[in-house]
Specification:
mainly alpha
Length: 99
């Protein structure tokens, strides 16, 4: 846990924002995938009057997932996504603020 906190403390605000956006897109796409499965199952048992609404929701869901995937594909990946990271400074070389 401490190693993760140290890694996070080395990130700039822009880098943290980039990571947050990436996780947000991943979570949103996962939720949409679950909804799509639920709608597909509901469509199999739906009556005709409800089926059209379910099909419309499936189409909307697919458009939103495609937009998220397109947005994610346009984002830099790997180390380039975070820009230049500040090198870790071992604790023994750190100088407390004000000294």
């Amino acid at each position: 846990m401490r190693a993760l906190l140290e890694d996070a403390s080395r990130l700039s605000d822009a880098q943290i924002g980039s990571e947050v956006d990436s996780v947000r897109r991943q979570l949103r796409e996962a939720r949409l995938a679950v909804e799509l499965r639920e709608h597909s199952l509901a469509l199999q048992e739906a009556e005709e009057d409800v089926a059209d609404r379910i099909k419309a929701r499936i189409a909307e869901n697919n458009r939103e997932r495609f937009a998220l995937q397109k947005d994610d594909a346009q984002q830099p990946h790997g180390s380039a996504a975070l820009g230049r990271r500040v090198a870790a400074v071992p604790a023994r070389f750190r100088v407390p603020a004000g000294d």
